[in-house]
Design brief:
The chain has 133 residues and is an alpha+beta fold. It has helices spanning 85-93, 96-112; strands spanning 8-16, 22-25, 34-38, 43-51, 55-60, 69-73. It has a domain at 8-80: SH3 Domains (SH3 type barrels). Helices cover 20% and strands 29% of the residues. The strands form two sheets. It has a four-stranded antiparallel β-sheet. A two-stranded antiparallel ribbon has the order 2-3. The longest helix has 17 residues, at 96-112.
């Protein structure tokens, strides 16, 4: 099943459900239909993450409404404190919006230090649509 556009793929991630359990949802949204529950201590493989009202993890779920996957809120698992969280920070740091921001910031800093605008490489990011000075 294809990932939603903003989802971050994960590799080799298994999460453990924390005390109180977690609802399993058809989509990464707390208003989405509940497909079931996982109990404290249950382990599931997660292959994607999506940030929204919660940090959602996509898991295999054979009874899924739209296929063979479902979503759980990562806040109810050990994922935020696991070594696998670096996959998320690494993916975000190299994402197009973060790269566009870093490029724009560097250009602004160079210009503030007196660099000639003509000597600064033009922006290359898809999200940087500012007018040239």
């Amino acid at each position: 099943m294809a990932l939603p556009g903003d989802a971050i793929p994960l590799r080799g991630v298994t999460v453990t459900v924390r005390q109180g359990g977690v609802n399993v949802r058809a989509e990464p949204d707390k208003a989405s239909p509940k497909l079931g529950e996982l109990n404290e201590g249950d382990k599931r493989r997660a292959d994607a993450l999506l940030f929204d009202d919660f940090t959602w993890l996509r898991i295999p779920w054979p009874r899924g409404a739209g296929g063979d996957t479902a979503w759980i809120a990562a806040e109810f698992t050990d994922f935020p404190r696991s070594r696998h969280y670096t996959q998320v920070t690494d993916a975000w740091y190299e994402s197009a919006p973060a790269l566009d921001f870093r490029r724009a910031l560097m250009r602004d800093l160079l210009q503030a230090r007196g660099a000639d605008a003509a000597s600064i490489a033009p922006p290359t990011g898809a999200g940087d649509n500012r007018e040239e000075p």
